[in-house]
UniProtKB/TrEMBL annotation:
The keyword Signal applies. It holds the Pfam family V-set. SMART domains: IGv. GO terms for biological process: adaptive immune response. This is Ig-like domain-containing protein. Residues 1-18 form the signal peptide. Residues 3-122 form the Ig-like domain. Keywords: Adaptive immunity, Immunity, Immunoglobulin domain, Receptor, Signal, T cell receptor. It comes from Cervus elaphus hippelaphus. PANTHER family: NON-FUNCTIONAL T CELL RECEPTOR GAMMA VARIABLE 10-RELATED, T-CELL RECEPTOR GAMMA CHAIN. It comes from the Eukaryota. InterPro entries: Ig-like_dom, Ig-like_dom_sf, Ig-like_fold, Ig_V-set, TRG_var/const_region. SUPFAM superfamilies: Immunoglobulin. The keyword Signal applies.
Length: 122
């Protein structure tokens, strides 16, 4: 298989009260077509378990697209495309991280991926 032609870039922003810092560990990621990729969003928060983490994607010359949001640290959130679990988001309370998994990578998945957090406590 040939590598995905376009790199998948991502960055993060923070919104909402109580979300103190959002960090990206990697500047860009790439993988082969039909493989999966994990994008990590490290969140420093006083109450990570109550945070809702939203994931977005922006493709070149297109509007921002909401992919999925995750609230639970025990259950992953999934979004299906063509009957497949294409998008999965989960929260790791031990590492204060949300992980977005994009499965069955295709050229159309290239874009900028964002995570945002919101605490409904405040």
């Amino acid at each position: 298989m040939s590598p995905l032609e376009a790199f998948t870039f991502f960055s993060f922003w923070a919104s909402g009260l109580g979300l103190s810092k959002v960090e990206q560990a990697q500047i860009s990621l790439s993988t082969e077509v039909k493989k999966s990729i994990n994008i990590h969003c490290k969140i420093e928060s006083t109450n990570f378990e109550s945070e809702t983490v939203y994931w977005y994607r922006q493709k070149r010359n297109q509007a921002l697209e909401h992919l999925v949001y995750v609230t639970s640290t025990t259950t992953a959130a999934r979004s299906q495309v063509d009957g497949k679990n294409k998008i999965e988001a989960r929260k790791d309370a031990r590492m204060f991280t949300s992980i977005l998994t994009v499965n069955f990578i295709e050229k159309e998945d290239a874009g900028i991926y964002y995570c945002a957090g919101w605490s409904s406590q405040y």
